[in-house]
Amino acid sequence: MVDKLFKLKDNGTTVKTEIIAGITTFMTMAYILFLNPNILGVTGMDKNAVFFATAISAGFVTIAMGLFVNFPMALAPGMGLNALFATVALAGVGMPWKTALGAVFISGLIFILLTVTRIRQILVVAIPNSLKRAITVGIGLFITIIGFKLSEIMVITAKVMPSTLNALGKSAAPITLKFFEWNIGMGSFTNHSMLVFLIGLGIAAVLMALKVKGSLLISIVAATTIGIPMGVTVIPANFTFFSLPDFHHLAIGALDIKGAFNMGIWTVVFTFTFVELFDTFGTLVGTAMKAGLIDPEGNSPKIGKAMLVDAIGISFGALMGTSTVTTYVESAAGIGEGGRTGLTAVTTGVLFLLALVLAPLAGIIPGAATAPALVIVGVLMSSSVIEIDFTDFTEAFPAFLTFILMPLTYSIANGIAGGIIAYTLLKVVTGKWKNVHWMMYLLFLLVLTRYIFLSK
Predict the structure, then answer these.
(1) Is residue 103 within 8 Å of 269, Cβ to Cβ?
(2) Cα 272 from Cα 99, distance rounded (Å)
(3) Which helix (H) or strand (E) holds 80?
(4) Domain ranges of the chain
(5) Cα 69 off chain centre by
(6) What is the residue-wise DSSP string for 249-285?
(7) Which of 80-94, 184-198, 329-343, 423-437 has the lowest mean pLDDT?
(8) 412, 283 Cβ separation under 8 angstroms
(9) Please, are residues 288 and 134 in contact by the beta-carbon 8 Å criterion?
């Protein structure tokens, strides 16, 4: 029954492999259950309500991806997109959070329209192979940076640099401005989180080299266990495996669509839509290609269904009371464990739903324990760099911008945008404009519009 539903034999996998892959993906994504409430909480939203919305939306939409598409992709409220939401709906400064949820809901409807009209599917064909490979590499570097930050091996600090400016002449009062000097360095070996990460990374690397099944999952469990005596894995005194969530103040259906229209927030809707468009494309296509679910030309009969589930998930998440739901780069962790079918996604989705009552257990897994898995997956995904033709500068330079901008600007969308601009320009000036898909020219204009006129 299971084999027939998910076509396990056809994809060269087993129930055991898929379940392990699903658990691995969940464990690398579980942080969003606790991080999302903290981020959206600054808007005035109830944190327990956000926790509930995060688990429900991630669970049901991920299960839908597994059952209806048979893809091993997991979805949840996206990092970066939730920060954008928080910025837009900052309590006492921006628009009301209910109105911002209305904007997210509208962006989801736009995505559904773009998907059913097959415009999003055209992107898969329009984006050249060199950029597709670069997207995969960029995502690998991106999640490696996330891993380093979670482990505290990479430390970012900001130093305030006050400066006085008199822009109106000597008679005017001086204006004091504050600038920030960012310092990026390596953490201290006295930091136990960093030590747990290094131990976990060593375990994961050795097991991967020995080709042990479930190596990433084993490393996460081992690092979590090792972190207990080191004080990194914190187990509360009143710890219990089961705990019912607080159902008070839920934000189900609290979105204000009418208010969204009244406030004239199309700039906000466009921004949500733009960032989500490239984030989802990069993650979905990049990880699917790594899993062998898309052929070298970027074709897959399932990609349209996957995009539709993703689009519906955006509006569903808004209805539940959370920011934009999107495909997660951490899905690559499960793929790295051999996940190839929707059973991986279903397993991850079920665990998100169980997290409603197993929140205390999921909460004790420290970031330092999951970080090694992200770094290892970064290695696997970065291997696609060898498939980029660096002898052709019109292919090499756009590809380089694509994968280097993602980690350095902390945005998948920025990397893809940079690659689109560079690729289109270089092909035109070298007389190869006929080799550029018409959609690339449209994307070129869209990107310029976004970064020139909507950069605030």
Answers:
(1) yes
(2) 13
(3) none
(4) 2-453
(5) 19
(6) T--TT---HHHHHHTT-HHHHHHHHHHHHHHHHHHHH
(7) 80-94
(8) yes
(9) no
Who contacts 361 (Cβ-Cβ below 8 Å, separation ≥6)?
Answer: 241
Residues 6+ away with beta carbon under 8 Å from 410? 80, 142, 145
Residue 30 dihedral angles phi and psi, to the nearest 5°: -55, -25
**How far, in Å, CA of 439 to CA of 108, rounded?**
21
Q: Which of 89, 113, 103, 74 is closest to 40 using CA atoms?
A: 89
CB 385 within 8 A of CB 139: no
Closest Cα to residue 361, out of 237, 240, 196, 193?
240
Selection from 56-60, 188-192, 282-286 with the highest mean pLDDT: 56-60
Q: Count CA within 13 A, CB hemisphere, residue 298.
A: 21
d(CA 440, CA 132): 13
Write the CA distances from 197 to 61, 121, 366, 377, 451, integer angstroms. Answer: 31, 39, 10, 15, 37
Residue 431 region by backbone torsions, left for phi larger than 0, else alpha for psi between -120 and 50, else beta: left
Closest by CA position to 402, among listed 384, 415, 383: 415
- Mean pLDDT, range 393-410, rounded to an integer: 90
The per-residue pLDDT for range 245-256, each reduced to its tens digit, is 666 666 676 676
Tokens 């839509």, residue?
A: 273
Distance CA 316, CA 305 (A): 16
* Whole-structure pTM value: 0.70
At 263 the three-state DSSP class reads coil
DSSP state of 365: S
Burial of residue 358 (number of CB atoms within 10 Å: 0-12, 13-18, 19+)? middle
Are residues 397 and 228 in contact, defined by beta-carbon separation less than 8 angstroms?
A: no
Using 50, 70 and 90 to split pLDDT, how confident is the model at 342? very high
Strand partners for 181? 159
Kindly report, residue by residue over 61-74, the tens digit of the pLDDT. Answer: 999 999 999 999 99
Check if the beta carbon of residue 85 is closer than 8 Å to that of residue 254: no
